[in-house]
Amino acid sequence: MKTFTKHDETTAPDDSKPLLEKSKAAFGRLPGLHAVMAEAPGLLEGYQKLHELFVNSSFDKDELTVVWQAINVENECHYCVPAHTGIAKSMGVDDAITEALRNKTPLPNDRLEALRDFTLKLVRERGFVADADVQAFLDAGFTKRNVLEVILGYSQKVMSNYTNHLAQTPVDPVFEKFAWSPKETA
Fold this sequence. Notes:
CATH topology of the largest domain: AhpD-like
Structural class: mainly alpha
Number of domains: 2
Shape: globular
Oligomer: single chain
Low-confidence stretches: none
CATH class of the largest domain: Mainly Alpha
CATH architecture of the largest domain: Up-down Bundle
Mean pLDDT: 96
Number of helices: 9
Radius of gyration: 16 Å
Largest sheet: none
């Protein structure tokens, strides 16, 4: 396996340098994922844009967390599960939601459970979600807009989860205390 470089503003390709500055400004530090993605400026820029769009979707903080973490856990992302645990804490998401997602246990309410179920069906069925499953999601109080916004969130997570799998991105020190592995979900 080739080692992927974790770039900074001095080693990154020129087109990635302003993107890394944007990341540092947004997070107060340079996330390891962004440092790896900098090798391909278009990937980093696309990831940043999808993140911005998803954060500004119609989902609230709990719902954003459900979509992100359901996908992270399903894809067994060693980097994103701890990162989004810390992000959820910073957003004020109830720890019960985060722990249920990390451990694949029931969520605190039926609406969030419906969101996780639909998200996982979308992922597992590669978008070929049965009409009855879409209807169940809508019946839980979600909208057609929300159906499409789950796709937006999944698009962002494909970029991060797959990059982390290939690059074996080390978990950022700030998130190490939230370490996770699929073995913990058994």
